[in-house]
Specification:
Layout (H helix, E strand, L loop, with lengths): L2 H4 L1 H9 L18 E2 L10 H15 L5 H5 L4 H12 L7 E3 L3 H15 L5 E5 L4 H13 L5 E5 L9 H7 L4 E7 L11 H10 L3 E5 L18 E4 L14 E4 L43 H17 L1 H23 L5 E2 L11 E5 L3 H12 L1 E2 L1 E3 L3 E5 L7 H16 L15
Helix pairs in contact: 2-13, 3-10, 5-10, 6-7, 11-13, 12-13
Bound molecules: pyridoxal-5'-phosphate.
The site of pyridoxal-5'-phosphate has 13 residues, from α6 and α7.
């Protein structure tokens, strides 16, 4: 790479021409020197959420009390679902917000296994988020161990050989379920071709969009996806524990049934009928009372993404990750670091994993001495979430420079191998 492209001045130049730079001002930033690169685990707090939640707590809850249910609370799972629908390429009445991603996945997997009753195989991969795999294991037990969970391995722990995956999907496959972007390496699956293959042999697909919504273009309707779910507290900036969304393609909504029948999924909750009758369509996937405070917190983050436009966000995300990889090649690769993410940007999401034998200690040193927050994923990945709405090119330059000096000066040696509860 040309030397000037490695200079700090070039990072400053990239920031100067960055059309999304102004969006940083949409977020609460209490420590301007903090380089926050964990937006793929917990996004920053939008200023508008701060205002909206203050209003919700002081007026809607504090003053209006139960009257607020009829004013707007009762429709929030649907109205916020419709905002998210724009981010995932879904026409109306296919997306609602309810429960966590894990619980939504449970509901979807049970619903699929019920209608795919003669098929034995469930296909996923070893890069999938463990909670998703636990849900699958639990569902298999619930269905009396009739199914076989096939977890395809990744040869390099970074990417998937698509031909092997497509080959594994056959007429005995009930379900294919994968993360659109894998949580460790950031590998980006091609939803369209995998969904197409699944449908050719009569299998159904559930895509987990937790690491992709808000940073890559998603076109669920166009790709003919059956089901999807994903969380809202990562790149959507919905706040800790904010509920997840669930998508079901319109034409299959009424041919399946939620495994959890609660009053919010029933036709008229306030008639208090003794017998459950599901609501029409996607609404039957609701269960109990929605968590209004954290539900409201999702709205502003999702709206900001729509304003910034996902095409612009993806463009900047690719530029950022390419920039980080070129700095990695020049400065970090000679120091024992290796790249834990795909090199090809078509197959890469918005985070970069960098591996090192002393990754855990380096991560601790970045946090303690350099005011940088990435996160760590076993066994040796330091993960950098590149959030185009508030991260800058100079952020990336600083991070790489810190990683270089931490190893050159062996500063990581001060830090123990001992793992904290949340890494
Ligand atoms: C973060 C994440 C989740 C989170 O699940 P919750 O049930 O909301 O805690 C699920 N799947 C993937 C792929 C994730 O990255």
């Amino acid at each position: 790479m040309d030397d000037f492209l490695l200079d700090y001045g070039y990072a400053e130049y990239l920031d100067k021409i960055d059309e999304l730079a102004k969006f940083r001002n949409e977020f609460v930033i209490t420590d301007p020197s903090l380089i926050y690169m964990d937006g793929n685990s917990l996004g920053r707090l939008p200023k508008r959420s701060f205002t909206e939640l203050n209003n919700l707590i002081s007026y809607q809850w504090g003053d209006q009390l139960i009257r607020s249910w009829n004013q707007n609370w009762i429709n929030l799972p649907i109205s916020i679902g419709e905002i998210i629908a724009h981010l995932i390429g879904a026409k109306p009445e296919q997306t609602i917000v309810s429960d966590s991603t894990s619980v939504n996945l449970f509901k979807l997997v049970c619903a699929v296994l019920e209608i795919q009753n003669n098929r034995k195989k469930i296909i996923s991969d070893m890069m999938n988020f463990p909670s998703d795999l636990y849900i699958l294991q639990g569902c298999i037990k619930l269905f009396n161990n009739k199914h076989e969970l096939i977890l395809l391995p990744s040869e390099d722990e970074i990417s998937m050989n698509t031909a092997v995956l497509l080959d594994a999907i056959d007429h005995d496959t009930a379900l294919v379920t994968l993360s659109h972007i894998t949580f460790k390496s950031g590998y980006l699956y091609d939803i369209a071709s995998i969904t197409q293959k699944a449908h050719q042999v009569g299998a159904l697909v559930i895509w987990d969009l937790s690491h992709s919504a808000g940073v890559v273009k998603i076109s669920l309707d166009e790709w003919d996806v059956d089901f999807a779910t994903g969380c809202t507290y990562k790149y959507l900036n919905g706040g800790p524990g904010a509920p997840a969304y669930i998508y079901i393609r319109k034409d299959i909504q009424n041919s399946l049934s939620s495994p959890i029948w609660g009053w919010f999924g029933a036709q008229s909750p306030f008639k208090f009928d003794l017998e459950f009758k599901p609501q029409e369509g996607i609404r039957q996937m609701m269960c109990g009372t929605p968590p209004i405070i954290s539900l409201q917190a999702i709205q502003a983050g999702a709206e900001i993404i729509l304003e910034a436009d996902i095409a612009n966000i993806r463009k900047k995300s690719v530029l950022m990750s390419e920039y980080m990889i070129s700095l990695f090649d020049s400065y970090l690769s000679p120091l024992g670091y290796s790249l834990g993410s795909p090199r090809c940007s078509d197959r890469r999401g918005s985070h970069i994993s960098i591996r090192h034998p002393f990754a855990y200690q380096i991560n601790q040193c970045l946090i303690a001495e350099k005011n940088v927050i990435p996160d760590f994923r076993e066994p040796d990945n330091i993960r950098f979430g590149l959030a185009p709405l508030y991260n800058s090119f100079t952020d990336i330059w600083h991070v790489v420079n810190h990683m270089k000096t931490i190893v050159e000066e062996q500063r990581y040696k001060k830090y123990a191998h001992f793992r904290n509860n949340v890494t």
